[in-house]
Amino acid sequence: MSYEEQQTIERILRTARTIATVGLSNDATKPAHTVPAYLQSQGYRVIPVNPTISEVLGQKAYASLAEVPEPIDVVQIFRRSEQVGPIVDEAIAAGAKAIWMQMGISDEAAAARARAAGLDVVMNQCMRVQHIRWSSTMI
């Protein structure tokens, strides 16, 4: 991982408070549930974005980022790489400050659009793993 990417990760983890998680699952065995649950346990406000569920992690779920009624710091993505582009465009329109594509997820064109709009971007990284790593260096 480059120094620049490390700095971006640390900046996001340090400054973010609200994480809208696209693809958050109500299946407690999936990373799309366990990672947001961990982040919630660490004090982040996690907003589920999934049109197939109404509530998860004790939070109302929204069908799209456009429906989220509060400011979003990070849009965390748990969708296949080929589905990232429209999510990133929606995140830009919603005024998000950062995009975080989980492990195995990347889209260079969407990332370039997000960066051009002033958003921080992380691709192919687990937010829980990075939070644990970052937190351990802050002790």
UniProtKB/TrEMBL annotation:
It comes from the Bacteria. InterPro entries: CoA-bd (IPR003781), NAD(P)-bd_dom_sf (IPR036291). Residues 13-105 form the CoA-binding domain. Pfam families: CoA_binding_2. This is CoA-binding domain-containing protein.
